[in-house]
Design brief:
Length: 376
């Protein structure tokens, strides 16, 4: 099993799936990080065929040929049963998450499951109940939550109070997808696979809004959302774009509001979000919403016509090893939790996963978006 040494926990991973997300996650774990707080080994890979699995390994390991290659299985069962696997990383399409998690849990494995955790809250609760009963670690892989960005934002907003009281938040995740050329059974188009912008990328916009307007509190500690207003642009049974407005009670009275958008129709701007406070603002930027690069703090308000501009500005940039995206931060957190005997993570606890799934269920219900799993 995993090394529980306090200085440098070591986790052996079994990876399910060979798509983009599994490729990026695995590549990040293989990258050299001399000061990493945990060590990671990819011990096994589950794919639909040996040919596909071996091709994945040849591609991903090309840049790090010195790293040990994993045992490749032509199914997922081999990963669950492999005694050299401590944690199963679920990087399969959304619709498979529930069963993949349940199978891994039944085999006594710890689990890191890609977002969205499941299709709906009912499925999520079933997985959470199974993990808690078995006593294994499980976490939804909302990897962006583990970026140093959020600790830095907390420092600016709640410690330094650099922008006063937060009043409004705007965020847009535009990720252009070639929907017209994709087959009907693509995970990005097929409702049976949980297709749609809300579950795929809208969850990131909602995550940022929850963190910023929810005062960085998660799960049962998260403040009540006073009102949720939404609009889904549904085409062929899946939402190609959406707008969600979240209203939270403000400490000074009234509401503070988040406007969250996501779309498959266009690529969003690199300056993807803005936090507006009573005495300043913070602009977030990066490759995309899920891969933030940092933020600009603007102390002082936008001058009116004829007024002098007295604002000051400074920048916070996220530093990470060249060629990596940042998946290793969540993997390190998993390793440390397991080494310390924890079965869930404080940054992304299971109650937070259930809360977010219920929020998205409500948005879909209000917008008339239903998946086959909702009827089961």
């Amino acid at each position: 099993m995993a090394d529980t040494g306090k200085s440098s926990p070591h986790v052996r991973w079994g990876v399910l799936g060979t798509g983009w997300i599994s490729t990026m996650f695995t590549s990040d774990l293989l990258a050299a990080r001399p000061d990493a707080p945990a060590r990671h080994t990819i011990a096994a890979l589950g794919s639909s065929s040996l040919e596909k699995g071996n091709a994945f390994v040849d591609k991903v390991w090309a840049k790090t040929p010195d790293q040990p290659r994993p045992q490749v299985y032509a199914d997922y069962r081999g990963v669950y049963d492999d005694p050299n696997v401590d944690v199963v990383y679920v990087g399969t399409p959304h619709s498979l998450h529930k069963q993949n998690c349940l199978d891994a849990i039944a085999a006594g494995k710890h689990v890191l499951c890609e977002k969205p955790f499941t299709i709906n809250a009912k499925e999520a609760q079933e997985v959470v109940d199974a993990a808690r009963k078995k006593g294994v670690f499980i976490m939804e892989a909302v990897w962006t939550r583990f970026f140093p960005l959020f600790k830095a934002l907390y420092e600016e907003i709640h410690v330094k109070k650099s922008i006063g009281n937060v009043q409004r938040f705007f965020i847009d995740f535009g990720n252009k997808m070639p929907l017209d050329t994709l087959p009907a059974n693509s995970r990005l188009k097929d409702p049976a696979l949980g297709a749609g912008a809300l579950l795929d990328i809208g969850v990131y916009s909602l995550t940022y809004a929850s963190i910023i307007l929810g005062d960085f509190k998660v799960g049962k500690e998260h403040p009540k959302i006073e009102r949720v207003t939404s609009s889904l642009d549904i085409v062929n049974g899946m939402d190609e774009a959406n707008v969600v407005v979240l209203d939270y009670a403000a400490a000074a009275g009234g509401n503070k509001t988040a406007v969250c958008t996501s779309t498959f129709r266009t690529r969003g701007a690199q300056e993807f979000a803005r936090i507006e406070g009573s005495t300043g603002s913070i602009v977030l930027f990066g490759l995309v919403v899920s891969v933030p690069g940092g933020f600009r703090v603007i102390e002082g308000l936008q001058p009116g016509m004829g007024e002098a501009d007295t604002r000051s500005e400074r920048v916070f940039n996220i530093e990470k090893p060249e060629g990596t995206l940042g998946f290793f931060w969540e993997a390190d957190a998993v390793a440390e939790d397991i080494a310390n005997g924890r079965t869930e993570n404080a940054t992304m606890p299971l109650d937070e996963t259930l809360r977010m799934m219920k929020l998205m269920d409500g948005i879909r219900q209000a917008g008339g978006l239903s998946y086959p799993q909702d009827q089961q």
